[in-house]
TrEMBL record:
Keywords: Membrane, Peptide transport, Protein transport, Transmembrane, Transmembrane helix, Transport. It is a multi-pass membrane protein. This is Oligopeptide transporter 4. GO terms for cellular component: membrane. Its main location: membrane. InterPro entries: Oligpept_transpt (IPR004648), OPT (IPR004813). It is found in: Membrane. One of its GO terms (molecular function) is oligopeptide transmembrane transporter activity. One of its GO terms (biological process) is protein transport. Belongs to the oligopeptide OPT transporter (TC 2.A.67.1) family.
Amino acid sequence: METLEVQTPYPTTTTTIITTVGHDDYDDDVSPIEQVRLTVTNTDDPTLPVWTFRMWFLGILSCSLLSFLNQFFTYRTEPLIITQITVQVAVLPIGHFLHAVLPKAQFRIPGFGSKLFSLNPGPFNMKEHVLITIFANAGSAFGNGPAYAVGIVTIIKAFYKRKISFMVGWLLIVTTQVLGYGWAGLLRKYVVEPAHMWWPSTLVQVSLFRALHEKDEARMSRAKFFLIALFCSFSWCLVPGYLFTTLTSVSWVCWIFSKSVTAQQIGSGMRGLGLGAVTLDWTAVASFLFSPLICPFFSIVNVFLGYTLIVYIAIPISYWGLDLYGAKRFPIFSSYLFTAQGQRYNISAIVNKKFEIDMAQYQEQGRLHLSMFFAFTYGFGFATIASTLTHVGLFYGRELYDRFRASYTGKEDIHTRLMRKYEDIPSWWFYVLLGVTVAASLVLCIFLNNQVQMPWWGLIFACIIAFIFTLPISIITATTNQFIGTIIAGTTNIAVAWWLLNSITNICQDDLLPADSPWTCPRDRVFFGASVIWGLVGPKRIFGSLGNYSSMNWFFLGGAVGPIIVWLFHKAFPEQSWIPLINLPVLLGATAYMPAATPVNYNSWILVGTIFNFFIFRYRKKWWQRYNYILSAALDAGVAFMAVLLYFSVGMENRRITWWGTKGEHCDLATCPTAKGIVADGCPAN
């Protein structure tokens, strides 16, 4: 068997559209997609047991564990996301262990007739492994950590200090997660069954499944390597996670220039531009952009270019050179909202009893102001949206049209035909699911509106928008979900969130927490700010005629025109192959995770990703093929288990070690304003 070399793992920053050939060029039993032909086999063994005790036990356990860990980490300063790849690797030896110890005796279950069952129907097989991983995928919200709607519950309880019942929160999370299944069922014909719908992000997992289930004759097996790396990761996490927390952001510029505001603004990895800042904490490396070990190098390069353009060119010019929007009155890097005097905006004061804006209090405090970086986050976000539409239309418009036609009239994929041997889910099931979910959501919006603050017409409008965009987006990305795992994951998410929100004092209030506290909720802080900007205060008072940042709307025009210029250059100089590689949506959207992500996250992610996916991939390819993904999974799992152990052993009782190495990154002046006359606590007078 030939060794398969694949470096298309988990694209986190861009979607790559690859031209495919027509159906007629290939036999019906061969996929028309080259990447699929190289990765996925065209055979199936329908006799392999699938619905086994091992599958259900390990699947539910994996889903519950991942949803617990991802919700647990989402409130932390470095919110590590544990993906299904960790489970994919870790569950294999457990599956083999269960095969060795479970009884093989057969028995009958009342109500199932004469059918025989066994806890151990045979060797642990790949189909069981795949279903367990699909379960686990729901536990990481399909690569995004916890369920998105948990953020709504968090900001209501932790930021707005309002009440929402556990049952309402559970319904909110489950309905928002499950609603997409209705659309998925209706559109299976277009986004699942055709051969052209090949789901590129799954190929890495397919290749990893095959690698894990092939005979392992190397000197060090993958399982042994995984256990060694897991132990090392688990042990080292104790150092930056508890004993020496300053290692999370080694901002040496701040140490050298301990009394310079400007130097600390430049050098702080967590509250400045992070020049030279690095981390020795894996959670900081992989917390926002996922593991750099599973991201292809071309994506890393695109992120690096965009990150450099925005953080080290646009921001310094705007802040120190032009003082745009009075930027020097505020921290250079912050997701907080401010008054004109540079003080943090008191959001609670402008919310009335009906959970609406109190205009009198708003007029008293004045307009909302943003840090320079936060303002640019929205500006470049606008440009990214516009440039994506223009870029895709110009460079891939014809291809998307052909792909849509192929999905509508194309022949069935060989793998779809193989699946016809199994009983399919009837279409009416998806109609019922869609109807029940929408009905439950309407109940929330109509009868419990005081808690969820969503009018019924807003829900209908959201459903219409979702339906309109589901087909074109699915044709490009071809992403799927699964139902049972979603219910389990959503329930676990809300349970863990409820527990942490009620057990950790001042959670998410970083101004009230100790300097080394990990419970600062950076993602939810940004989500809270967005809820104020787009909901409570409204975009008209921020980006419209009543706000300070109306000029940010010009980013839409710039984003739309940029790809046109690139396209015209490509047409004028077709021999220059590098021109079409200029991907403005990727460059402009490189810092989409900032904030809550910080420069130290990006610096270390780019550095580690370059080492493994350029140097090791190029010069130690066999090692990379064999151990790269295994190492990524082990690093994630090790820090996850140690972080939970630390919380239950020392965190719950607030046992802390106090010395220089546990007092943050020592860049206290990085958040200081530099404008004359602006006073801030702990900052020198200007």
